[in-house]
Amino acid sequence: MRLLTRQKLSILSAILFSTAAYAQTDAPKPYGAIPTERQLKWHETEMYCLIHFTPTTFQNKEWGYGDAAPSLFNPTKFNALQIVSAARSGGFKGVIFVTKHHDGFALWPTQTAAYNISESPWKNGKGNLVREFQQAAKQEGMKFGIYCSPWDRNNPEYGTPAYLTIYQNQLKELYSNYGELFMSWHDGANGGDGYYGGKNEKRKVDQSCYYDWMNTWAITRKLQPNASIFSDIGPDVRWVGNEKGISPETSWSTITIKGNDGKPAMPGFMDDANLGSGTRGGKQWIPFEGDVSLRPGWFYHADQDGQVKTVAELFSIYCKSVGHGGALDLGLSPTTEGLLHPKDVSTLAAFGKLLKQVFNYNLAKEAEISVSNVRNNQKQSFGTANLTDASRYSYWATDDDVHQANVQLDFKKPANFSIIQLRENIKLGQRIDSAGIDIFKNNQWQELAKATSIGSNRIIRLSQTQTAQKIRIRIYAPVAIALSEIGLYLEPEIKSAGTKGTANTYPKTNWKATSPAATGLALKNAADNNESTVFETRTSNYIDLDFSRPLVFSAVGYLPAQDGITAGAIEKYELLSSEDGKNWKTIASGEFSNIKANPILQRISLAKKITTRYLRLLAKQTVPAAGEKGSENNLLRIAEIEVYSK
Ligand code: FUL
């Protein structure tokens, strides 16, 4: 009996005083805003894809107007597995399917609206794309998420309170029938005009309250408690403020989101100045997602087959999204057949291979690691072994009063590396202010790089390979440091999987540009083959081009300014031609959808070839400058106009 008690006692004390139990009680106190369990899982996911495939694909548009006949939708070779397995080969861990885009066509047989897949000829109206993607994701071991556009250009009720109920019911259907979702993606685009049951009118909604987001997201929380909610402002994952997929160099996972006009922030209704950088010490933990498409547009366009991003471009985006503590959300665009184009498939596979090659082996494991301080001298709990064990949550920590410390890596023989990776244990918040990396060269320490905003992941990509036997990392924080990982990697020379296609554009040598009241060189900026010069005017809403001889063409390109200013980009256009520069006739008109968020080259394809010497690009609506209402806006900005010979 006595013996048993003694045994019990010793077991108890072993538990109490084991290093693990010690670590629990002795861990640094969390600093500032910290992630939820749901957000931790999202951080671990790092890479996922966003699939756009609706009747809009068949119309070769970016934003469907809401009037496409359901009969258009008939992808004869559709294969969700081909698409999802290509995503997996790229190293992506999840897929989000656009279950309904702005055109309003539901890709599942919803009870909430007639405009849905059951009206299409595909599988005789018995098909369900959401189900197909859910099952393919399951089969490939990938996470599954949904995007259901709040803006609906088809629904006759859009703009009234009745539509909100329809939208919430759509979410309920999606949340209840397709297993566990890892993300619910809510975009902030609300363009205004649309088909709306045949009304063909402009409907504006008050984004500060129309979607009643707090109650709408309460449905998400109730039915899909593990799904991270993405929107411009979170609450779990925020937009990065562009569709290039990248954040600025400094990008905190903490942010204080502010609304407009003294009202609370809502998607599409917020101060977006800090979306990219976040806020040091911000009130909320809302990391960013970098969304970008593998192609220029989110939907498939055959004329963009030559513009699939290269592996080198993808890797650079990866380093500035995942490598800045966010996630990479890469757009995939199935063709009208319902498959990914072979070029997209091979690019994804090559990208996945590269990631494996780079991050397969952490060179830091070969180094002897020493640090200037270990918390309470508890090497077992807070020591350097934690720095290379590939666990995000085991960590090296300093004493509470040690806010600056060094980590030194000593190699037996010189190591070659070009990437340094740092991670904090974010369960304890984003603690580190900055880090400096030094190498020991010519008998002295030399600074190689600096970084701020470490957080869940910070990739420092050097411009060239370095060779060093001693590396030192200096870390500065306002509180005790809790660093979980140090990685050193060597990037191979990236062989590009194919180069970008040639554009087949006419040379602009003898072109003359005119626009009322605009003079001089600035006009030439619109046709000088230089993407970084901009023609800007407030005195006219069009520009005329005189080619000096008739040109034969069936497509024209408009490149909005590439200087980061989206104001003045053309949203609605009219294209006119003339034989003599006096009498004009309209040859095309339409919208450049999504140009504000994604200011890429826009291609206008004409119904048939024309021969003409004069061309007018007329802006019927442009993106207003900050603080200007649409009606007061008269700014027009053009980086380049192209005329395609083929
Ligand atoms: C945006 C939309 O307007 C685009 O069409 C696309 O869906 C992108 C991912 O989000 O807000």
TrEMBL record:
SUPFAM superfamilies: (Trans)glycosidases, Galactose-binding domain-like. It holds the Pfam family F5_F8_type_C_2. Its EC number is 3.2.1.51. It is an enzyme of class 3 (hydrolase). GO terms for cellular component: lysosome. Residues 492-646 form the F5/8 type C domain. Residues 1-23 form the signal peptide. GO terms for molecular function: alpha-L-fucosidase activity. GO terms for biological process: fucose metabolic process; glycoside catabolic process. Keywords: Glycosidase, Hydrolase, Signal. Belongs to the glycosyl hydrolase 29 family. PANTHER family: ALPHA-L-FUCOSIDASE, ALPHA-L-FUCOSIDASE-RELATED. This is alpha-L-fucosidase. It comes from Pedobacter cryoconitis.
